[in-house]
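Worked example 3. Consider a protein that binds nicotinamide-adenine-dinucleotide.
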Amino acid sequence: MNLLDGKLVSEHYKQKIKTEVAQWVANGNKPPHLAAVIVGNDGASEAYVANKVKTCAAVGFNSTLIRLPADTTQAHLNDTIDSLNDNKDIDGFIVQMPLPPHLDSISVTERIKPSKDVDGFHPINMGRMMLSQPCYLPATPKGILLLLEYYKIETKGKHCVVIGRSNIVGSPMTMLMSRKANPGNATVTICHSGTTNLKHFTLQADILIAALGQAEFVKEDMVKHGAVVIDVGITRVDDNTNARGYRLAGDVAFNEVAPLSSYITPVPGGVGLMTVVGLLLNTLAAAKKKCIIKRIKINKIKLYDFKKNY
Ligand code: NAD
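Given these inputs, the predicted complex is written out as structure tokens:
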């Protein structure tokens, strides 16, 4: 068993980003600037956003954290998004999900200007991804691709099984693993809550990507010998032996699955750290205007036009 070490690989990328930012600034440009909006006091979201802001500083980005109370109205959140869309100093921004239930996350995602949508969740970015056209890739799938690439894991012709079909992880991951690229070019099966006999599929996986959000769900008897196992899940599990009263668990029962896998990601220390790298790389691309998405009007219909690849 080999560890797919998110700590090692994320440090590698952060160093590269830091060097690139220093060069960019030395050439007279302003540092990339990422803003994050957080609504309410969800503990896990607070931790994720704090980590993103901290990492920005480590690579030389500017960052702005906008905290809004849990009872923020949709109108106020919309105004906040509009002002970030118009703020020339901000290169990209995210609205941390999940939002309190009275807020409409779909309209929030659609309100963010695609050229500043460094989470890659806007339908324009998602659609462009589907068509293999320039776009910001969603940060978690992007981080997983970087991890596979770093360890030179062959994906072409392999059978990749993804558990989970969410818009932010499972579905884009399926798409990216199947497209003609490296990593990619795999034959992909997507499993979800409607799948019967899940084990039948997971046992066929050369590469198994678990993104279902159920602690230690994937057991030893569900994994083929020699499989590459990517664990996306992060769930807080009560643990009185831990000072915080909980520990973080992945979707894979690591201790029993690791011995039969060829490569496996730990939780924590795996995909989560790579997600931040995906976000930083998208923000760097936004700052360098490598992926310019301009609103254009043809016959009074608003369209979006990507000017360059990145
Ligand atoms: P989600 O709840 O939106 O989607 C879960 C998916 O899993 C659904 O499509 C559902 O059909 C499927 N599913 C649920 N139970 C299942 C079962 N028993 N069998 C088969 N499929 C089942 O979740 P999400 O946003 O995709 O996140 C999944 C997990 O990944 C969560 O633990 C989340 O915290 C974590 N996550 C981690 C990162 C990271 O950076 N590591 C990023 C995003 C999400």
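Take a moment to read the result before moving on. The pocket of nicotinamide-adenine-dinucleotide is lined by residues 140, 163-166, 168-170, 191-193, 195, 198, 211-214, 232-235, 271-272, 275 (CB under 6 Å). The chain has ten helices and 13 strands.
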